Inverse folding.
C-alpha cells in the first residue's frame, strides 16, 4: 500500500504502542505458562474453561479482520442492510453451533480437534481431509488478519504495509507460542473489553464528528435505489445469502470454533454460545455502520481498496489520541483471531498429523507434540506473511473459504447422528462437492448452455433445502428438519429456476451443500453399517494421560481405515 499524505502517528509512537500491547499479552501468556507444559492444556486448556473466558474467547475469535473490515465494506456496497446481513447472520450461526456442539461434546467429551473425532468415527482419510481443509482455512484467515493489520499501520504511520504485516505477525506469534490455546483464550477476554470500548465510545464519536444524523439526510443522493432499500434483494443475494451459507460452514468446519467447543466446560456450552451470539452481532453491526456513513458522505476508499474504509473513517474524524487508541483496539481484535488460528493449526498438526498418524501405534510423546505445535506456529506465521503480500480482498476470501467448507457440512453433521454414514461416503461426498464447487465458483461452467444452467439451478434449490433443513434439525429434531428441507427445496425450485445460476458466489456455495448431501445419503442409505457412537469416547482422550499410564489410547490402536470400517459395521 502506498502512503497517502502525511502520517498521523509517528513511527516511534506506533512502535511503542505495539510494544506495549504485545508486551502486555506476552506478560499474561508467560504468567499462565506452566513449568512443565502439558500438551492437552496447550490444545484445549483441559476441557474446563469457565463461562466468562469462554464466551469472550468465542466472541473475539468470531470477530476477525473480515468481521470488522468486511462488515464496513458490506455497508458501503449495500447500504444500511449490508451490516445487518453481515452481523445478524454471522451471530445466528454462532447460535446454530450450539445444538450440534452439544452432540459433539456428548460423543467426544475430551477431543482436541474435530478431525480427531472423524478419525474415531471413520478413519484416517476422513480425518486428514477435514484437517487439510482446516489448514487451508486457518492459513487464509491468518493471512487476512495480517493484511488488515498491515493496512492499518501503513495508513496511520510512516511504516509501510509489509512492515506492518511483519509487526503484527511477530507480536501474535510471540505471546501465543508459549501457552497455545490458554494464552489465546485469556488474551481474548482483554481484547473483547477493548472492542466494547470501540463500539460503545469510539464509533459514536466518529458518527457525530462526521455530521450524524444530518449526514443521512444530506447524503442520501449518493445512494443507488438498491442501497437505499433496506429490503434490497441485491443485498440479500450478493451478501446475505452467500454469507449464511459461508458462516454455517465456518461454524461446523472451523477448528478455531471447535477448539473452544472442546475447551469450555460441557455444562456451560449453551450459555457461552448464546452470549457470544449477542456480543458478536452488536459489535460487528456497529463497526459496519462506519461503511454506511462513508457511503452517505460520498467517501472514496483510499487506493480504491474497500478494506481501507474503517481506518480511513477513523483517520478522518478522530483526534490523534483516539486514533492511537483505535489502532490498538483494531490490532487487538484481529490479533484475537490470528492467535486462534495459530492455536488451531498447532492442534491439528499435534493431534491429527503427529499424534495419530506419525506416532507409532498411539505412542505419541507429549513433549514432542509441544515441539511440533510450536514449530507449526512459526511455519504458519511465515507462510501467512508471504501470502499477505498479495493483498487479496478480505470479503472475497471469507466467502470463498466458507463456501469451500460447505462441502463438509452435511457429511460432518451426519457422521455424529446417523449410524449408516461410512468412510467412503464421507470422503467421496466431500471430493465430489469440491469437484463441482470449483468450476462453478470460477465460472468454468458455460452457463449459456441450457443443460448446465438448469442443473445448477436445481442444485441451488436442493442446497437451500439442505441449509434450512440442517438449521431446523439442530433445534427441532429430525422430523422437523426433514420436512423443512424438503419443503424449502420444493418451494424454492420455481423461485430460483432460470436466474440464480447468474449469482456465482451464492450458486457455488449452494452447489457444494447439495452435492455433498446427495452423494453422502446415496452411498450411506444402503451401506448396512451401524456405528456404535460409544466407541468414540474410547478412541479419543488425553495424550498426557496416555503417557502417565503408559497405555495407548484405543483411538490410535486402529491403524487404518479398514479397521475402523470393520468396527463400524456388523452391529445391525
Amino acid at each position: 500500500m502506498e502512503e497517502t499524505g502525511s502520517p498521523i502517528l509517528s513511527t516511534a509512537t506506533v512502535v511503542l504502542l505495539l510494544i506495549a500491547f504485545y508486551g502486555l499479552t506476552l506478560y499474561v501468556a508467560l504468567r499462565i505458562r506452566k513449568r512443565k507444559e502439558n500438551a492437552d492444556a496447550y490444545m484445549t486448556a483441559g476441557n474446563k474453561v469457565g463461562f466468562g473466558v469462554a464466551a469472550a474467547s468465542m466472541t473475539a475469535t468470531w470477530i476477525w479482520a473480515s468481521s470488522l473490515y468486511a462488515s464496513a465494506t458490506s455497508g458501503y456496497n449495500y447500504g444500511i442492510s449490508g451490516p445487518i446481513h453481515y452481523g445478524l447472520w454471522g451471530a445466528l450461526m454462532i447460535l446454530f453451533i450450539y445444538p450440534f456442539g452439544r452432540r459433539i461434546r456428548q460423543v467426544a467429551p475430551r477431543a482436541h480437534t474435530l478431525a480427531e473425532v472423524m478419525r474415531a468415527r471413520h478413519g484416517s482419510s476422513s480425518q486428514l481431509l477435514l484437517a487439510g481443509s482446516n489448514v487451508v482455512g486457518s492459513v487464509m484467515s491468518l493471512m487476512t488478519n495480517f493484511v488488515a493489520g498491515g493496512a492499518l499501520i501503513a495508513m496511520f504511520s510512516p511504516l509501510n504495509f509489509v512492515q506492518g504485516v511483519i509487526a503484527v505477525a511477530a507480536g501474535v506469534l510471540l505471546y501465543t507460542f508459549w501457552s497455545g490455546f490458554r494464552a489465546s483464550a485469556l488474551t481474548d477476554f482483554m481484547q473483547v473489553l477493548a472492542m466494547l470500548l470501540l463500539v460503545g465510545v469510539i464509533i459514536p464519536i466518529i458518527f457525530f464528528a462526521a455530521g450524524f444524523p444530518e449526514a443521512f439526510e444530506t447524503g442520501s443522493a449518493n445512494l443507488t435505489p438498491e442501497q437505499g432499500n433496506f429490503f434490497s434483494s441485491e443485498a440479500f443475494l450478493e451478501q446475505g445469502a452467500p454469507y449464511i451459507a459461508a458462516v454455517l460452514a465456518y461454524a461446523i468446519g472451523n477448528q478455531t470454533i471447535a477448539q473452544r467447543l472442546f475447551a469450555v466446560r460441557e455444562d456451560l456450552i449453551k450459555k457461552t454460545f448464546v452470549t457470544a451470539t449477542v456480543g458478536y452481532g452488536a459489535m460487528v453491526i456497529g463497526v459496519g455502520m462506519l461503511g454506511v456513513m462513508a457511503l452517505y458522505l460520498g467517501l472514496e476508499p483510499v487506493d480504491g481498496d474497500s478494506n481501507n474504509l474503517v481506518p480511513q473513517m477513523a483517520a478522518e474524524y478522530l483526534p490523534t489520541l483516539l486514533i492511537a487508541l483505535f489502532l490498538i483496539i483494531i490490532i487487538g481484535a484481529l490479533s484475537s483471531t490470528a492467535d486462534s488460528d495459530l492455536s488451531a493449526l498447532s492442534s491439528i498438526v499435534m493431534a491429527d498429523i503427529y499424534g495419530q498418524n506419525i506416532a507409532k501405534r498411539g505412542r505419541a510423546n507429549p513433549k514432542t507434540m509441544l515441539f511440533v505445535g510450536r514449530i507449526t506456529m512459526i511455519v504458519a506465521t511465515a507462510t501467512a506473511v508471504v501470502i499477505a503480500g498479495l493483498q487479496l480482498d478480505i470479503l472475497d476470501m471469507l466467502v470463498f473459504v466458507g463456501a469451500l467448507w460447505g462441502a463438509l457440512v452435511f457429511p460432518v453433521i451426519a457422521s455424529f447422528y446417523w449410524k449408516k454414514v461410512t468412510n467412503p461416503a464421507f470422503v467421496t461426498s466431500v471430493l465430489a462437492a469440491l469437484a463441482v464447487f470449483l468450476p462453478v465458483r470460477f465460472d468454468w461452467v458455460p452457463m449459456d448452455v441450457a443443460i448446465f444452467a438448469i442443473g445448477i439451478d436445481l442444485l441451488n434449490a436442493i442446497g437451500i433445502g439442505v441449509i434450512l433443513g440442517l438449521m431446523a434439525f439442530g433445534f427441532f429434531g429430525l422430523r422437523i428438519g426433514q420436512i423443512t428441507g424438503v419443503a424449502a427445496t420444493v418451494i424454492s425450485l420455481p423461485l430460483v429456476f432460470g436466474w440464480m445460476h447468474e449469482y456465482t458466489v451464492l450458486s457455488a456455495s449452494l452447489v457444494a451443500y447439495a452435492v455433498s448431501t446427495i452423494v453422502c445419503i446415496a452411498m450411506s442409505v444402503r451401506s448396512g453399517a451401524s456405528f456404535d457412537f460409544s466407541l468414540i469416547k474410547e478412541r479419543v482422550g488425553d495424550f498426557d494421560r496416555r503417557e502417565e499410564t503408559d497405555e495407548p489410547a484405543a483411538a490410535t490402536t486402529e491403524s487404518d481405515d479398514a479397521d475402523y470400517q470393520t468396527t463400524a459395521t456388523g452391529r445391525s
